Amino acid sequence: MVISVEYHCEDRLVLKSVFPRQCERLVQWIDRPSFGFMGLKMLITEILARNARMYGPETALIEREPETGGRREITWSNFDHQANRFANALIAHGVQPGDRVAHLLMNCLEWLPAYFGILRTGACVVPLNFRFEAEVIDSCCELVVPRILLFGEEFIERVASIKSSLDQSVEVYLFLGAESDCPKFASHYEAFVGESSTSDPEIPLNITDDAALYFTSGTTGRPKAARLSHRNLEFACYVENQHHGQVHSDNFLCIPPLYHTGAKMHWFGNFIVGARAVILKGVTPRWILEAVSEERVTIVWLLVPWAHDILIAWENGDVDPGDYHLEQWRLMHIGAQPVPPSLIHAWKRLFPHHDYDTNYGLTETTGPGCVHLGLEHTHKIGAIGVPGFDWECRVVDDQGNDLPEGERGELLVKGPGVMKDYYLNPEETAAAITEGWLHTGDIARLDEDGFIWLVDRKKDLIVTGGENVSPVEVEHFLMAHSAIQDIAVIGTPDRRLGEQVTAIIQLKTGQPLDRAQVLEYAKGLPRYKRPRIIHFGPVPRNATGKIEKPRLREKYAANGNSS
Q1: 56-205, what's its fold?
Q2: Which of 472, 440, 281 is nearest to 364 (CA)?
């Protein structure tokens, strides 16, 4: 059952289609004084300007460089002024609404001001994955044709190696880093910005205008560019804040890469109420706990491997939570990949006072939130949750028919966060979006209470001897073994069965485990789901924590022997 709730702001429908259990929280959200009705029509560029007016001298962003002990911060006024300076410099160079500006930086204090500066010109910002190799960067730029390429010191060699190709569209190469390291083919960022005005350039922006092109992670094929509007970005602010209830006194620890919709859209929940955030440049259990303790962080979004690392470090005595001020840390949430229930049960034993949430989303849904567990639903750990704020979900068969509870089918989602399209790719767009419903490519099921359980990626399902096997199910089962740190399960070719269940296991340091012990432990699974091939080695993950299964299939497809 769905209840339709509508609220109009200047003839624009803001809220609709919520499940009954969300109604009370939705009404609380509308009545929140921290938003005010003006917030319901603000572009994110306007939200930044409002924060500068209301909280100008207060800290907005903090950068921590744990390897060197470095720490920098900027206020909301600084943030706003830096964005305006960059916007005015770009406009002076001729950047116009509809142009594309590529953005290739590691997480740093300048990342977000540059991002907002590009948006204020009316141009489309193109954040690029910092793990992309030169060839992929070239391919992405060939598609989006950026006039400007902003890059950091880590990318000098990659950019230089493809410059002759990039020159077909890129007019200015902007280098952000030490002036002494600036390559000859680039202009230094500070020189380019110069004495540009700190005033808003006041370029008219419409909520339906293109705002950003985000490339997919490429874990299931070549990256595609999801075209997001200003409305998509604005909506992400409300979704995140509705789910996690950020207030002005909260502090968000941002660890994942900002080029990815997940990290930035989780930060949006703090951003919309003018709350501060910490950008942590480096990931170890000690660095995370130090940042939480010293900066009085209240909310942390972790990827599964990082949460595992914290638990392992605690188990091994490498860190002691008692050494840190963690009492203000109220929420730990996880997304970007399926979360093993055993991980969360272990986490709650260590941090029993933490609220916990898991978030499901895609680049094509403007990041996380189209499905989320909810702080009040920890009894459903293992599920990805219910439709998020102002989202609708369906589980369908191959013909698009809705499936009853318990049956597995493809998860479809619909809401204001769905992308416009895949940029200049009508065929893929038509395959992905049907009458506003986005085909996620994930297999899911509904339980008797309406909660959604993720089964696996449609392309990752293993068919062995005519039976479908979910790699995620096998991974979750084996992850409960005390010696296993990480695991990936894939299908590898088999002449008789079609595919064989193959496990790549990364062991905890100093924890012995052999093939026979794994096979014995796996007897808790039905016979056809047990791994027949076992490899011990590292499990490669991308910057957002997703297992790079195409790499593993390529590596192990021809190797039928356990190691």
Answers
A1: Rossmann fold (3.40.50)
A2: 440
Which CATH number does the domain 460-556 belong to among 3.40.50.720, 3.30.300.30, 3.20.20.80, 3.40.50.1000? 3.30.300.30
CA-to-CA distance for 186 and 329, rounded, in angstroms? 43
In terms of Cβ atoms closer than 10 Å to its own Cβ (0-12, 13-18, 19+), residue 497 is middle
Q: What is the DSSP string of 275-325?
A: -EEEEESS--HHHHHHHHHHHT--EEEE-HHHHHHHHHHHHHTS--GGGS-
**Residue pair 66/280 in contact by the 8 Å Cβ criterion:** yes
pLDDT digits (tens, 9 = 90+) for 308-333: 889 989 988 999 988 999 999 999 99
- What is the per-residue pLDDT across 139-170, written as a single tens digit (0 to 9) for each? 999 999 999 999 999 999 999 999 999 999 99
Residues pairing with 252 in the sheet: 277, 299
Residue 7 pLDDT level (bands cut at 50, 70, 90)? very low
For residue 41, how many other CB atoms are within 10 A of its CB? 13
Helix (H) or strand (E) holding 463: strand 462-464
Which whole number is the average pLDDT over 384-395? 96
Q: State the Cα angle at 339 between 335 and 342, rounded to 5°.
A: 145
> 11-47, pLDDT tens digit by residue?
333 333 333 333 443 443 343 433 433 345 689 999 9
Least confident stretch, 67-81, 203-217, 494-508:
494-508
- Residue 117's contacts (CB-CB under 8 Å, 6 or more residues apart) are 82, 83, 84, 85, 86, 87, 90
Question: For the domain 17-53+230-455, what is the CATH superfamily, name and number?
Answer: ANL, N-terminal domain (3.40.50.12780)
Question: Structure tokens of 544?
Answer: 């957002």
Nearest CA-CA partner of 487 in 473, 498, 467: 473
Question: Which residue, chain included where needed, has tokens 């075209």?
Answer: 227
**Cα torsion angle, 248, 253, 258, 260, sign:** negative
Q: Where are the beta strands (DSSP E) in 317-362?
A: 331-335, 355-362
pTM over 0.85: no
Q: Which two tokens stand for residue 11?
A: 């003839």
Give the pair of three-digit tokens for residue 372: 């989320």
